[in-house]
Every structure is written in C-alpha cells, then in structure tokens.
Design a protein that fits this description.
Length: about 120
C-alpha cells in the first residue's frame, strides 16, 4: 500500500483512478455490447438503452491485481447487494452489501492564463 499523495499521474494527468472501488456507470450491461463494434476507435460508445443491471468498471480492492485496470468490465448484482437493506420495499439505489463499488463525480475544468 501507499499514500494517495505518492501516486504519480497516468499519461492523461489523472490521479488515483483505480484500485479502491469499481466505478458504477450509467450504461446498462449486456455481455455482447462490444461485439458489434469494429476495430475503429470509438469515443463514449453507447450500449443498450435499457436493462436489468448497470456496468461497473475498473476493478476494486476485491479484484486480482491484473483486473484493476480501466478495461475491466462487470455488472451490478442488485439482489445480492441488497440482502441487508432494511427498507421495505428494497431500494434500487442503496447497495447495502456492496462496499467495493462507487461513483465518480466529474466536472469541466478550465485552465486560465493567470497563475
């Protein structure tokens, strides 16, 4: 382990993108989503328009080291992650038994000419 401040940025200048929790994504999961894409680079591909489970990406502390990478893709397991949810009816948003998935907050950043 290491302190977060000891991490060097990746080639895009981003820090601490992987390792603690997998990223909950808005995309719906389908096992064959990428089969329809050819080898052309696709930016922000759109998957299915609906589904039962969402995509999670990046790997977490529960994954083997080889699976802690941006390309790692899995899906939510809603029923399993709600076992101890005390709410009746069960919440579709509170994964009480899931400590290894989180979400990322993103905003635009403008660099000014001033230092």
């Amino acid at each position: 382990t290491h302190l977060p401040s000891e991490v060097k940025p990746n080639p895009f200048g981003l820090l601490n993108m992987l390792g603690n929790v997998s990223e909950f994504c808005q995309d719906w999961y389908s096992p064959d989503t990428y089969a329809s894409y050819n080898e052309v680079t696709i930016i922000d591909p759109k998957g299915p328009t609906d589904g039962l489970e969402h995509v999670i990406r990046g790997g977490s502390y529960k994954n083997d080291a080889a699976d802690v990478r941006c390309a790692t893709r899995d899906f939510t397991k809603t029923k399993k992650w709600l076992i101890t949810d005390p709410q009746i009816p069960k919440s579709i948003w509170w994964y009480s038994d899931c400590t290894h998935v989180g979400f990322r907050v993103v905003c635009e950043y403008y660099i000014s000419d001033k230092k």
